[in-house]
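INPUT
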Amino acid sequence: MNKNNEAYITGIGQSEIGKNLLRHPLLLTVDAVKEALDEAGLSIAQIDGVSTYPGRVPQMLGFSPIGADELIDALGIKATWYAGGGEISSQLGAVVAAVGAIRTGQARHVICYRTVYEAAALARPEEYPMQRRDRVEGSAQWTAPFNALSPATWFAQYAMRHVKKYRLTREQLAQIALTDRANALLNPRALVREPLTMDEYLSSRMVAEPLCLLDCDRYTDASTVLIVSAGEALDEVKCTPIRIAAMAGSVDRHSWDQAEWMASYATGRDLWKRTDYKPADVDTAQLYDGFSFLALTWLEALGFCDVGEGGRFIEGGKRIALDGELPLNTFGGQIAGGRLHGFGFAHEAVVQLRGLGGERQIKGNPKVAVATSGGGPLATALLLARD
Amino acid sequence: MRPLPRLDSINRDFWTGGEQGELRIMCCNDCGTFFHPPRPVCRHCLSDHVATKAVSGTGVVDTFTINHQKWHPKMEVPFVIARVELDDAPGVYLTTNIVGCEVSEVDIGDRVQVTFEKQDDIFLPLFVKTA
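OUTPUT
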């Protein structure tokens, strides 16, 4: 391996994570940028690329209030490459795009970010209005007329297959939320820092069977930044670089009802084709859990267990606990850590690989981590390594 | 009230076929394959010689959920959201509601038949269980 040809995550940053924050979403983004620059020992003048998902979404500003255009202009970045859009293999696709730019010499240090402001937008609609139309169009027309109005109802149907075909139980699925909530207690920045018991989970009200309220993440205001740097520029960086050892992303049919199966499965399979590492080498898994069931399917998709065995793999919770054989979502995942929308998983993988997890740091000098985003019609997986 | 689709030249047949009691799915005149959502090109052979065709309207529940959440205050719950695979159009799935039975009576593999619910100018293809 010639490190000059590789791409690395260097500085990482995170703003305050909360609900209905008053701080402007551009300032949350700048908070995360500054933290990442400080950690890397870089100045803003050394940044020559910006990548984000899904770019500014004017009709749904809370979902994505700050586009790459605005950040570049606001911070005076001289960008030789940039990208921002939703038509990519889910949130961490923004990192995949940045790696492409770096490996082809178009940039040396790229700020990748995801800013969310959904709780604030819901609380202050006069400032962050949702644009509503009289009629639905595009892909929404195939679900909304049947009152399938939320991703919860779309993912619940995939989860129901696991219930019927593989006998997934609520007690098994509960382990994702229970693990998230236990880990979040040790993360000072986590959104939900209250313990959760199995009884509380089982008595939580149903949203769309088999998913209950505690299987869902919650609207969050926050920004997460990952700086991706070229191997040849690592002498400019003071923090421990984390190599992006392999990447995979896929879309089968970008549809909530026409795809045979979830994109996570093809993505997980492809990831291992592009590396000599094996699932057994992974020290911690940070797997997208906007709905708990997604993390379970990622465990199967990445080959930590067979397809259909996810429920039995996590049963009892010991295996995926902080001191288990495969610590999962050590920051609390999206369910308890906050809906950072994909970027939180890569951020935490880097924290753990650097040994900076504090109270939640996993033991044993971890060297390899996997981080994912999406998992339904779109999916991305990153394999990260500390050399 | 359900959110309704905006009609255009491509989706009109699907959303209004119910007026004649027909479930109309896009089909390729060259290779004979059905596909969905409707588009002016066949996703199997790339032909643009395509048109909608009425299918029998029978199918099977591929998967489902029982929705309990009131996504707006006036929504009546619980109800079943299902993905139905059509007998005559292999590989085509419709998100729909299973109506005319208790929510607890729906299961994967159930045989179903289309029934249309009119709202304004739209005929929504819903499904009922068949014996």
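end of record. Chain B touches chain A through 33 residues (CB under 8 Å).
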